[in-house]
Amino acid sequence: MKVLGRYDKIGNQIVDTHTGEIIDTDDIKRTVEEDLLTHANQSVRTLSELGINAEVRIIKDKLGEPYEVFSVKENHEFNKIFRVDVNYMFENSDLSIEAAGFLGRFIGKLHFPSNTIMLNGKHPNQDEMCEFLRIGRTKLNSILKELEYYDVIKRVKINGKTYIYINPFLVCTGLLAVDTYKLFEKSIYNPNKIISD
C-alpha cells in the first residue's frame, strides 16, 4: 500500500521507496502531521489573502501536538492572562483569599490601554470599591497593601485621585500604555527585565 506516494508497507515495516530505508512509524507520523499542518496553514493564508476568514486553523501546542482551533469571540475586547506567571505568583506567595478575590472581581474591569481598574466607566474611589466588593475600608486597604507587596498592583496618585494599575505581566488588556509599562518595568514577572548588580 502506498502512503504519500513515497512509502510502501512491506510486512509490518514502512520502507522509503526512494532510498530503501526502513522508516520508524513515529517518524512517518511526524512527517505526515507536519505536511498536513503546512498545507492547512497555507490554505488558511490563501483564504486570508482573498479576504475570506477561515473559521478553523491548525496549530501545535508546546509538546508538538496538532490541534484544530478557532476564535471563540471575534472582534471582542479581552484581557490576556499570563497563566504561567499567575500560577507562579499564587504558588510563591501567601496571597490571601481576599486578595485573590479582589483580582477575580476586577480582572474583567481593566481600562485599555492603561491597565487600570475601572467601575462603571470611571476609576473608582475607595468607597466605590468597598461597595462593589462588599467590604470595609480597613479590609480594602489591607488587600491593596498585600497586592502591592506581591507586585500585583501599584497605586499612583494623580491630581489627588488614586489610580490602581494591575501588573501587565500578569494580566494585560493588550497593547499597553508606555507609562504603565514603566511602572512595572522592574517587576519580577517582566521577562524583559534587565538584572543589574
Automatic annotation (TrEMBL):
Mind telling me what this protein is named?
A: Uncharacterized protein
Name the source organism.
Paenibacillus sophorae
